[in-house]
Design a protein that fits this description.
The protein is built from two helices and three strands; from the N terminus they run H-E-E-E-H. It has 96 residues and is of the alpha+beta class. Helix 1 runs antiparallel to helix 2. The longest helix has 21 residues. It is elongated.
């Protein structure tokens, strides 16, 4: 018995790739005394890739922007879940 359709497998693979990208290609910010300045995106292991925006501090002080990462993960999960429900065989009307 086939548990997943081909469309559901495609949705699952795309979701896994997007989830991985959201975890590895992340937004960075520098926390100041009263505000947080976003300094761009970069790989998790390399830090931000926007050195021209780092005029307020060194890239050693940059930290992952966790609220934005969580928001991206929730958005990818919600969109993938909605598409997964739409392509499920139970969501299709019965013709007759």
């Amino acid at each position: 018995m086939n548990v997943m359709t081909k469309a559901q497998r495609i949705v699952l693979i795309v979701y896994c790739v997007l989830f991985g990208c959201c975890c590895l290609w992340i937004p960075w910010h520098i926390l100041g005394a009263s505000q947080s300045m976003r300094v761009g995106y970069g790989w998790l292991w390399a830090g931000p890739l926007n050195p021209e925006k780092l005029d307020i501090g060194d890239s050693n002080y940059a930290a992952p922007d966790l609220p934005l990462i969580v928001l991206r993960l929730l958005a990818v999960t919600a969109i993938s879940a909605a598409v997964g429900i739409l392509v499920s065989p139970h969501a299709k009307p019965k013709g007759g």
